[in-house]
Amino acid sequence: MDKAALRLTLFGLLFTCVNLAAEKKKIDIYSFHINCTVTGRYATTVITSRVANVLNKSQEVNFEVQIPKNAFISQFRMTIDGKTYDAIVKEKEEAQQEYSQAVSRGESAGLVSAVGRTLEEFKTSVTVAANSKVTFELTYEELLKRRLGKYELLINAQPMQPVADFKIDVHIHESAGISLLEVKGGLNTKDLANAVTTTRAQQDAWVKFYPTRDQQKDCDDCTKNGLNGNLVIMYDVERVKQSGDFKVANGYFVHYFAPTDVQRIPKNVVFIIDQSSSMQGNKIEQTRMAMLRILSDLAKDDYFGLITFSSHIQAWKPELLKATAENVEEAKTFVKQIRSGGATDINGAVLNAVNMINQYTQEGSASILILLTDGDPTSGVTNPVTIQQNVKTAIGGKYPLYCLGFGFNVRFEFLEKMSLENNGAARRIYEDSDADLQLQGFYEEVAIPLLTNVQLNYQGVAKVTQTTFSQYYNGSEIVVAGYITDNSLESLTTEVIALSKSTKVVYNDSVLTDDLKNDGLEHGNYISRLWAFLTVKQLLAKTMLLKGQEKDNAKTEALDLSLKYKFVTPLTSMVVTKPQGDEVQVAVKPNEEKRHSSGRKQTSKDSTRMHLAASPDNMHYFKTPTRHHHGSRNKIASQRPIQHSFRKIPIFAPDYHDLFDAELGMWYQLPKTTQKPLATSPPWKSIRILKSSGNAQPICYDVPFALNVRLQQNDPTEFYMNGELEAMGGKGFKQIDISYKTNHQLRLSATKIDYSYGSESMTFSWDQELTHHETEHVSLVLRSNEMDITMGNMRIVILLHKEDGSVFLWPAVLQQPKDVSSSGILGEAEVSYEVILGLQTSILKLKDQVVKASWVTMKDYRLPAAPVIGCWLVPFEAVTQKTISDFAITQP
Ligand SMILES: *[C@@H]1O[C@H](CO)[C@@H](O)[C@H](O)[C@H]1NC(C)=O
Ligand SMILES: *[C@@H]1O[C@H](CO)[C@@H](O)[C@H](O)[C@H]1NC(C)=O
Ligand SMILES: *[C@@H]1O[C@H](CO)[C@@H](O)[C@H](O)[C@H]1NC(C)=O
Ligand SMILES: *[C@@H]1O[C@H](CO)[C@@H](O)[C@H](O)[C@H]1NC(C)=O
Questions:
Q1: Which one of 400, 427, 447 terminates a domain?
Q2: Pairing mode, if any, of strands 42-53 and 133-143?
Q3: CATH no. for residue 339?
Q4: Which domain holds residue 348?
Q5: Cβ distance 764 to 751 under 8 Å?
Q6: How far is the CA of 495 from the centre of ligand 4 (A)?
Q7: How many whole angstroms separate alpha carbon 26 and alpha carbon 56?
Q8: What is the pLDDT of residues 480-538, one digit of tens each?
Q9: What's the number of domains the chain is made of?
Q10: Average pLDDT, rounded, for the chain
């Protein structure tokens, strides 16, 4: 074979490979963004997926995402060939009639359906012409509830294939101040953890998750279709005033009430446990495990009772007993002997428990009934309506009844109604390996009553959401929103009356409405949406309890609000019209009952259950192998809020050798090896660099003046980034040069971007529309004023900032290998420190050195909005371990 023929063959082979690759990637999801903004606990999430049909013929493109069940979808749109198709929210019946044809063709099925415990799925598809693109955009909203001292935001990411430009951006703004931030979930583990960055300021927190394409293929929560997992962000806020926090905007107000200055109230609690035959195996096993732990958690001054029931009702003791060590031990022995068998007499069991608790009335305690059942009533009184009436009459509104529905054989609506009628709530317990933890978790939420009979009063307001709460538990929060009727109202006056043990407590407050208005950072209309969300949720719950005209009124009101705010609720439907031949799809929110069937398929573990049934008596047999609670990695190394350190007062600190910590009441001795803390004052600085740290607060450092500097140098991966600074007094960079593996060169300036790859070269401009360019291991995504660059396992965004007439570039390193040492003035991946002493001027321990730091605020140019945030200013040398001359270069 001569040389030419060989070349031709090779070329042919190459061509085949390329073709195969193209065949495999007929649909390219080239960009997938989830942008979530939380203001005052109200979360608005926008999922944007941009998809290209790279095939030479038209084909169907799917959009499939999972959203929290508690949320309402508020917008959906598709953009195809520059034309936008907005979905419309209509009354359910109207939509069904209008589009009955579509519905009868079965097209509505599956548009939204329940999947797991916390998520429901939204799914649609559209036909896209050859070589065309479509953009899907879905918006949903929810009010985050405080549970066990935290708000939890759950984001599911499952783009169905690895995506070049994948981003999750979360911005939390809480004007009261953020006191805790944790990022968990399967997407924050192992290899993916370094794709997560968190930034925190006093009132704001940003969480970014920007995994590279390679990471999306190769992680624990990945399949060959890319990522599939959750990111869970938990946070809490500062509580300065016991009377709560108020916000006012556009005529609406919201009051967040969660006092901490009260003592726990001892409780009288009766557990009513179903031991009918359907509980056999796994369920009864897990119930026993949970009960044993719950009994151990009872406080010494709590009183408790235990009732187990099937067709026959059995009480551990005829009365409530104090939770002394002996009583708890005795009760545990009883629990270990609970066996399943027989039918289900819910009526008898609950009435028995009510009797028990009624006989035991102690001043200054909080009574609670907890019912756990897995099936419909089949023995004694079996008519659900009669049971509900009996229970309601017996309890007489005196204390709450909580109902836990175990598995999917229960008629959940029956339990829900019964608990709502008695000031409680119903919760589903999913049959899974962690069912015992779910039970225990629910108990913990009601374990510490702080107030009972809470009544909140407001003056000059209307359309107020629920204002009476039978109990307030530690770790929760009461949220009330309403409309201010009096336009001239200068102050919002509130009065909260409640019982703490048997003492009446009053929280009065009067806040000037002007002080409550926008603090400039908030989009004020979140309060009216929060109000609408809460009102619709509460009205929907009410419609379950009301009858006749009242029920109709509540329904009408909920419907009107759902339509006005475009919420897809159980009363409305969303009509999606597609471009081809007026094809229509109707999306409805699934209800709890319908979740039966789909949920059952998902969660039942028949094989496990059979396996376990073989040895039901062995208490310790069931070891939960895989627990599906959200990860365990905690990205924030320091749990302790930094404010703590501010309270430490140095009394004697001339040279920082001996320091007195007033809070701990002890002297601090700085390490002898360090003569003096390093000073922080470069003669002339050029720019100030902000760096996320392993700690809650970032650090920052001034770069001494130099014109051209090495920003990042990573020899093992052959990645280099240099920058040319603006002249003295400038704000950022004039030019940034990046080189990767010798054959990729990228030069960015304020006017254009040049890229060359081998013999190929191209030029982009900053204002062109979203562009995506990809070669092996390199992906460039350009959107307005942002170039997102992935080269191997480096991910960098270069931002173009325009500020006060000057235009400059700023690099943000989103990701860099942590195990490979890299140098440059941007330093390595992450720096952590220890606060030895905190005040305006503080002492940090950083890289085994003691350094002086000052608390300063600066703009974070690593984000497009350049928010002002606080950081510890430390010396340049302390971070880089070098002097500027080590990084200065003669030309970029
Ligand atoms: C996310 O949405 C907010 C509110 O619409 C917007 O201000 C912000 O720029 C968006 N962030 C990103 C990264 O798209
Ligand atoms: C794509 O289709 C058009 C028209 O059917 C045809 O002219 C063209 O050659 C095709 N291109 C490729 C790359 O197959
Ligand atoms: C409430 O819970 C917090 C922790 O979440 C705890 O520090 C506090 O002591 C609890 N309050 C009472 C009264 O138990
Ligand atoms: C609280 O306010 C109410 C009316 O707004 C008033 O009657 C009551 O005396 C006040 N209580 C306290 C303790 O200030």
A1: 447
A2: antiparallel
A3: 3.40.50.410
A4: 267-447
A5: no
A6: 7
A7: 9
A8: 999 988 777 778 899 999 999 889 999 999 887 776 665 544 556 899 999 999 999 99
A9: 3
A10: 80
